[in-house]
Design goal:
It is a single chain. The protein is of the alpha+beta class. Helix content is 25%, strand content 36%. The strands form 3 sheets. Strands 4, 8, 9, 10, 11, 12, 17, 18 and 19 form a 9-stranded mixed beta sheet that branches. Strands 3, 5, 6, 7, 13, 14, 15 and 16 form an 8-stranded mixed beta sheet that branches. The chain has a two-stranded antiparallel ribbon with strand order 1-2.
Length: 419
C-alpha cells in the first residue's frame, strides 16, 4: 500500500498521512447528460428521497437488515415514465412523487450534478452507463429512443426475446456485471423474460472512493451490539475521533462521514431507542436535511458491516403504493404509447422491476452496489467539546449526494454479524 500526504483545508488546516486503499461503490441507475443547475435537480431529489422512505418499510422485511437504492429505483422508473401516457402517466406521477411535467429533464439535471463528481481531475472514480434492450423488429417510436439516447445517454441494443429469451437475459446480466465491476453479477432472474418481453431498461453507475477521514488503523476491536430482541452480539467496531457532520434531533442523532474530496457522504442515523419507530418517522425532509449538518468533534464507534441481500422484486410494493396501471391492473389500463403505438391486442406494460444491492463498510471507505431493471412485456461549524456516539444498536444509514441531498442508498443495519 502506498502512503501519501493529503491536505484537508476544512477545520484545522493540516496535513495527515492516510493509507491509500481504494474501495468501490457501484449502483445501477438512470443517467442523463444535461448540463443543468442543481436547482433544476431539486424535484428529482425530492422524488428519490420520498420513494425511498415509502419503500424502506413496505418493500423490505420489517425486521433484520435491509438495503435499497432509491436513486437507482427512481432512475429506472423515470425512463419508463418518459414513455407513459394518459391515466398511467398520471398515476405513476402520483405514486413516484413527480411534482411537475419536467421531471425527465429534472432527473437529467440530477444525473449531471452527480456525475460531475467523476471528472477527469477528481480523486474518485465515477462512471455511468445506461442501456435499453429491445426486441428486434418491434416498432418502438423513434422519438422515444432518441429522447433516452440524447437525454440519458441510453442507446438501444437489439435482442431476440421471442426465440432466445434466456440468451438475452444472459447478455443483460453480463452487461450489468461488466458495468458494476462484478459487484452485481446478475439482475434478471431465470424465467423473468419470455417470448412476450419487448423491452428491458437497465442502468449502471460505478464509484470508487475513500473516506476523507479514515478510521483509526488498528483501533478496530470486538464490542457488543444490542439487537432488537435485547440480545447482544460481538461485532468489529471501528473508531474515529474527528470533526464531522453532527445533528441531535428528537428521537435520533446523525453523524455524516465525507468521502475524500467529493460531495458524497455516508450518514449514520442512530435512534435514541427503537429503530422501527425512527424508520416510521423518517421523512424526505429529514433525509434532505442531512446534507446541511454542522460540524462537531465526534468520537465515533461504528461497526464494520457487509450486506449482500437477495434480488428484490418491487412490483408488489409499487402496486401497493398505488401504481397499478403501469402493471396492467386492471387488464387493459397500461398506456405506454409514448414508447410504441398502443393497439388493443398489442401494447406494453411493466411485468416486474428487479433490484439488487450490496454494501461493505470498513476502515478505509465504502464498497456498495445496486442494480435495477424494469422488464416491459407485450400484452396481448466552530470547535466544540467532543460528543461520543457509539453505534451499538440497530440503526439506519444513508449514502448521500450532499449538494442535492439525494439518497443513493438507504439502509437498515439490525445485526452487523448476520451474513
Amino acid at each position: 500500500m502506498k502512503l501519501f500526504q493529503c491536505h484537508f483545508p476544512e477545520g484545522n488546516d493540516r496535513h495527515r498521512s492516510v493509507n491509500h486503499v481504494a474501495s468501490s461503490l457501484a449502483i445501477v441507475s438512470l443517467c442523463a447528460v444535461f448540463s443543468l443547475s442543481s436547482m433544476n435537480a431539486a424535484p428529482a431529489t425530492d422524488a428519490v428521497n420520498a420513494l425511498g422512505v415509502d419503500l424502506l418499510s413496505k418493500s423490505l422485511p420489517p425486521d433484520g437488515n435491509a438495503l435499497l437504492s432509491p436513486y437507482s429505483i427512481q432512475s429506472v422508473l423515470v425512463m419508463a415514465y418518459a414513455g407513459a401516457d394518459g391515466d398511467t402517466k398520471t398515476q405513476m406521477a402520483g405514486t413516484l412523487h413527480y411534482a411537475n411535467d419536467s421531471i425527465v429533464t429534472d432527473f437529467a439535471a440530477l444525473r449531471s450534478e452527480i456525475s460531475a463528481l467523476g471528472s477527469k481531475d477528481s480523486p474518485i472514480t465515477l462512471s455511468i452507463a445506461d442501456r435499453l434492450f429491445g426486441q428486434k423488429g418491434y416498432p418502438f417510436l423513434p422519438d422515444y429512443l432518441e429522447l433516452l439516447k440524447s437525454t440519458f445517454s441510453a442507446p438501444m441494443e437489439l435482442a431476440d426475446f421471442e426465440t432466445q429469451a434466456a440468451a438475452a437475459a444472459k447478455r443483460i446480466n453480463a452487461w450489468v456485471k461488466e458495468q458494476t465491476h462484478d459487484k452485481i453479477p446478475s439482475i434478471v432472474p431465470d424465467g423473468a423474460l419470455n417470448e412476450d418481453t419487448r423491452l428491458v431498461l437497465v442502468n449502471a453507475l460505478y464509484l470508487k472512493a475513500l473516506w476523507r477521514f479514515p478510521f483509526i488503523q488498528g483501533a478496530t476491536k470486538p464490542m457488543p451490539f444490542a439487537l432488537a430482541d435485547g440480545s447482544k452480539v460481538d461485532v468489529p467496531m471501528m473508531r474515529l475521533d474527528e470533526s464531522v457532520g453532527y445533528q441531535k434531533a428528537e428521537g435520533f442523532v446523525a453523524v455524516s462521514l465525507p468521502y475524500e474530496n467529493s460531495d458524497l457522504q455516508f450518514v449514520v442515523i442512530l435512534p435514541d431507542a427503537d429503530c422501527a419507530a425512527l424508520e416510521k418517522s423518517l421523512t424526505p425532509e429529514i433525509l434532505a436535511g442531512f446534507s446541511k449538518m454542522s460540524r462537531q468533534q465526534v468520537d465515533l464507534s461504528l461497526p464494520k458491516f457487509r450486506l449482500d441481500p437477495p434480488l428484490l422484486s418491487l412490483a408488489d410494493s409499487l402496486k401497493a403504493l398505488g401504481m397499478t396501471y403501469a402493471f396492467n391492473i386492471p387488464t387493459g389500463t397500461a398506456d405506454f404509447s409514448g414508447i410504441a403505438v398502443r393497439k388493443p391486442d398489442d401494447y406494453l406494460y411493466i411485468s416486474d422491476i428487479f433490484h439488487k444491492t450490496f454494501v461493505d463498510v470498513d476502515e478505509n471507505g465504502t464498497e456498495a452496489a445496486a442494480a435495477t431493471a424494469a422488464v416491459m412485456m407485450r400484452a396481448t461549524m466552530a470547535p466544540m467539546d467532543p460528543v461520543t456516539v457509539t453505534v451499538d444498536r440497530p440503526f439506519l444509514f444513508v449514502i448521500q449526494h450532499r449538494p442535492t441531498g439525494t439518497c443513493l442508498f438507504l439502509g437498515r443495519m439490525a445485526n452487523p454479524a448476520a451474513p
